[in-house]
Write a structure and sequence with these properties.
about 50% helix; 2 domains; about 0% strand; flat; mainly alpha
């Protein structure tokens, strides 16, 4: 209602996330215009060249009213117990260095689903194809061990 598109567009509810993804993929394949809500990471967001509309930034006032604005962003936090931080500070350091964008996660999910593979196989695929990214998260010794494990298969 905030965008007042009811008379311009046919507003449909796909009924489920699977229905939404199917509808988007179908329209994309037919090169038809499609406007809808999407989140990431997903296989679809990782595979398709989607355009994100510019919207005014989210504010509590905008969201509570009938004005149009972006959805709120969701921060993902990594937390560990005090015991783990004392027992394995290198793990805490790893998590502090870790960067994994939703676009990257979507690409990994797309590879996994397109190849009918397991999450473990997708992780190996990611490590084999993104050394420049992940090697900065770990010590050089750890990176060498990962390389050795990947070489052994």
């Amino acid at each position: 209602d905030a965008y007042d598109l009811g008379e311009t567009l046919d507003i449909l509810s796909p009924g489920s996330s699977a229905g939404l993804m199917s509808d988007l993929e179908g329209a994309y394949g037919r090169q038809e215009a499609w406007l809808g809500y999407m989140w990431a990471p997903t296989k679809v967001a990782g595979e398709l060249d989607l355009y994100v509309l510019d919207e005014p930034p989210h504010t509590d006032e905008c969201w509570a009213g009938d004005q149009a604005c972006a959805y709120p962003t969701v921060d993902i936090r990594i937390v560990v117990s005090k015991a783990l931080s004392e027992r394995a500070p290198e793990v805490v350091e790893f998590f502090g260095n870790w960067e994994f964008e939703s676009k990257t996660a979507g690409a990994v999910e797309a590879w996994m689903k397109n190849n009918n593979e397991t999450p473990e196989a997708a992780a190996v695929w990611y490590l084999n194809n993104n050394r420049d990214a992940w090697s900065g998260w770990v010590t050089s010794d750890a990176a060498e061990k990962v390389d050795e494990a990947l070489a052994e298969g």
